[in-house]
Amino acid sequence: MKKLLLPLITLSLLSCSSEDTLEDVNIQNNEIQTKNDLLQRGGGGFVNTPTDPQNKVWQIIDYPWQIYGFYSSFLNKHMYSSSGHPSMIPKTQPGQSWYFLDRALGATDGEGNGNGSMISSWFNTNTQDLVLTTNPNEFTGQNGWEKVNDLGKSFIGNEPGTFPIYRYFRNETKSHFYTRDKNELGDGKNGFVYEGIAFYLKEPAPYEYRIHDGTFYQDKKTNSVYVVMEGQLRMIENTEVLTRVFDFRNKRPLNMPATYINKVDDIEIIQGSRGPMIQANARLSEDVNTGMRYFSDPNGTRGNLKIIPSMLFDIYHFNDGSLVRTTGTNNSRLQELKKTY
Fold first, then answer.
1. Where are the alpha helices (DSSP H) in 93-247?
2. Tens of pLDDT along 167-176?
3. Which residues form the DUF5648 domain (predicted)?
């Protein structure tokens, strides 16, 4: 089963909105170290570190696949989400619903490797009730229920480290409530009726989230921009190289940027293989006779010129407006640019 997309856990670490385009990128030569200093430090703005034979880049996520509980004293309702932000809670009316973070229930089997059933979130647009369930068939024939998302699989109850989540319902407020502590409401009180064990969770543990090739980062401290290429995190020398080699032009009809930049407080939180800087002499070219496209990367340690397979041109967000037209580029020994993940 495919892994679930990580929920919006990287709250303070990453930003992937339309604001993170080139309008926010201001890389000046005097804001970073000199090229000689960078080359002495591995050509990437940081010391080159030993890497595995299989290059990869990753980030440690502290609380993946967590389920968060919220409460609104204004509405007297409980809500649940895979995001710790109240703004991500479903609602029927715009504006503030006065929900605050009340608890963390635990973590699902977000990787989907186990044999448990999928936990899904359902919202009733008529009553504003939210239900977490492993049995979506319970809504068959009922009005107003809409699926919000899948949260990950339930663990099996006899697995080490698991604990049950107890489900309650209060008819007066048309609100479900979930807790990992049955002593909180016992077999039912304060208008809540006990409905049984909903599913099983575990305590969240740090998770190594591998980062895809073609992902961009900007270090907020230095404004330097990096790209993950062939399983290595590589610094881009300056703004001119960034906008010439890679595509940040807005795309019609939605006028959305072609490429996003994830901002991080410190680039060192992105771990793994480091590669050489992509310098000012890097360029893209296309052989007019064959239509083959090439990435010239003179500072690269794996060869100066590489063939760009058609599928990878968009994955790496290369700028087709910067292709230099050439003829006679025909070398059977050239390597292809690769996608490692």
1. 239-245
2. 999 999 999 9
3. 67-201
